[in-house]
Amino acid sequence: MVTVLDTVVRHRHPEKAHRPDQEVLRKPDWIRVRAPVSKGYAETREIVKSHNLVTVCEEAGCPNIGECWDKKHATFMIMGEICTRACAFCNVSTGIPTALDPNEPESVGEAVAKMGLNHVVITSVDRDDLDDGGAQHFADVIHAIRRLAPGTTIEILTPDFLRKEGALEVVVAAKPDVFNHNLETVPSKYLKVRPGARYFHSIRLLQRVKELDPTIFTKSGIMVGLGEERNEVLQLMDDLRTANVDFITIGQYLAPSRKHHAVIKFVTPDEFKSFETVAYTKGFLMVASSPLTRSSHHAGDDFARLRAAREKQLNKLA
Question: For residue 263, what pLDDT is reported?
Fold first, then answer.
């Protein structure tokens, strides 16, 4: 089947098109996962489908979908299935999005309540076509979850709201518990990997969240294996700490297809452990660094640990 992604990407980003001579690295054993077949997975899938919801778990082809859905963990993707950008790593379709669904906030809130989630992650496609980038829709979803599932803590993974004056303030005012915005890669790779974004705008966005509401935890994630150098990753950590970011995630990039940016390297578990050690020495409250780490993987457990780490830090200062 030819998808919107196939059609648009080849015209907008020819470097993403399939190259017959492109070497495809063999996946090492540590990156392999089992296919999802459990009863819990099937039940979560039914709840998602019955509420006509979209999950990034499916759209991005996340390797952890079997584990997460078995435990009734899911990351809901709001504002449609079509993104206005064409990042070289992403499997979400690119094109002209449809209008926002005014019933979506209520549907998400109902699904969260039905699943009995302690912690939920809400993300979205980029909506550069909207005046506020979808900020008010994010806020509406947060408010709906607070009303229908008041015991659930809320983590959002947002776009960068580039050139959308006042958008960030709308989202922060809705008071999510965790504000996540991923840098995705080091600045030298932005032109090819994340061409529609600006590295230092993303850093400033995360810094601004803390300025607006210091009680909100901030979080950002990157993929490795895209050709970055180790010292670039360490500098990125410093940039995030300058912005007072609490939590960093580091995971292995996996190419969704040959159309996408190639995997340049499979980073070993020992290298991931080294990144974790360095990140903690730089002052992050929480670090998740492993081949299968993804932004929302184990998000609920990680939030509990993040909150405990802050309390411990505050007690030391008291």
Answer: 94
Q: How far apart are alpha carbons 184 and 191 in whole angstroms? A: 12
Residues with Cβ < 8 Å from 284, sequence gap 6 or more? 237, 240, 241, 245, 246, 247, 248
Closest to 267 in 3D by CA, of 300, 311, 297, 228? 228
Q: What's the pTM value of the predicted model, to 2 decimals?
A: 0.83
Cα separation, 122 vs 78, whole angstroms: 7
Ordered structural domains, the chain, with CATH: 4-8+35-317 (3.20.20.70)
Query: Rounded to a whole number, what is the distance in angstroms from the first to the last CA of the chain?
Result: 61
3-state helix, strand, coil in the chain (%, to 5): 45, 15, 45
Strand partners, 156: 122, 179
pLDDT at 11 over 60: no
8 Å CB contact between 133 and 85 = no
